[in-house]
Design brief:
Oligomer: homotetramer
Structural class of chain A: alpha+beta
Radius of gyration of chain A: 14 Å
Number of strands of chain A: 6
Strand order of the largest sheet of chain A: 1-2-4-5-6-3
Order of helices and strands of chain A: HHEEHEEEE
Largest sheet of chain A: 6 strands, antiparallel
Distance between the termini of chain A: 18 Å
Strand content of chain A: 35-45%
CATH architecture of chain A: Roll
CATH superfamily of chain A: Hotdog Thioesterase
Largest interface: A-B, 39 and 39 residues
Helix content of chain A: 10-25%
């Protein structure tokens, strides 16, 4: 399972560009981190909302994929994310968890924490779709 | 007004990293584009959802900022985005438009088009907050 | 087309309970209104957010259904709604419009206006799914 | 605290119309239930999505209010809700929980369960605003 996700993750050019790292893969849960860099900032010098969103979207998509058949691919249908605290931290840790897994659609919850993994910075809910090949 | 937005845009490290360009600034509307590159892909070789999301979030935030007082800064409270078509295009064009401008909160609509600016790929609704300094 | 929607609308017990009325059905667009009553209020005496949400969800669902095959039924996958102005009006007018129609999923935009149909009170984006029978 | 919420709840005409009941009030968490009736259905005879949405929006709003000062009122800024299972049950149980409480904005998670309180039917994330009087 880890290999399947890792192979796909390594094909995501954006994850490399952001310096994101695949930390953990379990059935229905995936964790991705991203080290701070000035290349990832918004105008006040903290992580841009787009960075948190990108890694937690990937984490949710891969969490969904762990529960899909081998010949399936996953696409984001939509997501909503709340930014609760400014992302002033040296590392973002994003966790995607499957809330409801269906044949076509999967609903995931995404969490973005600071480097201590204690302060919840952002919260996502995402709908993913399974595409069979 | 363009200068205020441009100065802030140039401080966003992520926009530089994505190769994003500030195309247009009007009262209540901002346009940002992003050229395709293999550094910005998801696993199937198209633009990652996070790229579209990052530039349209910036476009919405700056659209909101054009209607805020000079001593205000803007932060994303939350947004929701639907991905309607795969982002198979050589350039993304993101447009943020203010739908409702209040003293504290501003609601924006964000649109991500392909390079022809005819095919709507993604649609965002964002809530922005004004922080006074 | 009107008959198909009208028949389904009349089976919605909630629409009767809210006093909602099916005003208009076109390909990809449906309009529903709801007269003010003290039975529909929140604690400050205006329309409860749930009333606006219920009728605009129905309007979006039926707008999606107008573009689906005859043997299809529609279900709400998810929606997001922003409440921009307090619903101080004697009538709510909800309009659902299809933004993107696919084989499985349909994305709709929903608008809730005051009785003059000039003041936009709320804005929804909804994802609908087609279920074939 | 219960009295403050109960008094406000009893002024919501819609809650009476839906037959909703305030079950429980704790700091940061509120529970509301709603008995099935044919007055609350969608076209297939189950609970209309609008009913689940209305009660869980109220539960989230009141959960937020339990953490606000005495002279504050609460309004829904926006919410997003996913409908994961058809609401085939004789009673809906909605729980609103505060995820992040700020001076102006409060982010809540809302859960709608079936009558056994075991099957999660819908999941909401809501942004609430505090209005001082």
């Amino acid at each position: 399972m880890y290999d399947r996700i890792k192979k796909s993750f390594d094909r995501q050019g954006l994850m490399k560009t952001l310096g994101a790292e695949l930390l953990n893969v379990e059935k229905g849960q995936v964790k991705i981190s991203c080290q701070f860099s000035e290349k990832l900032t918004q105008q006040h010098g903290f992580f841009h909302a787009g960075v948190a969103t990108s890694i937690v979207d990937s984490a949710c998509g891969y969490a969904a994929l762990t529960l899909m058949p081998e010949n399936a691919e996953v696409l984001s249908v939509e997501f909503k994310i709340n930014f609760m605290k400014p992302a002033k931290t040296d590392k973002l840790i994003a966790i995607g968890k499957v809330l409801q897994s269906g044949k076509t659609l999967t609903v995931c919850e995404g969490y973005v924490y600071d480097s201590s993994e204690e302060k919840l910075l952002s919260k996502m809910t995402a709908t993913m779709i399974s595409i069979l090949y």
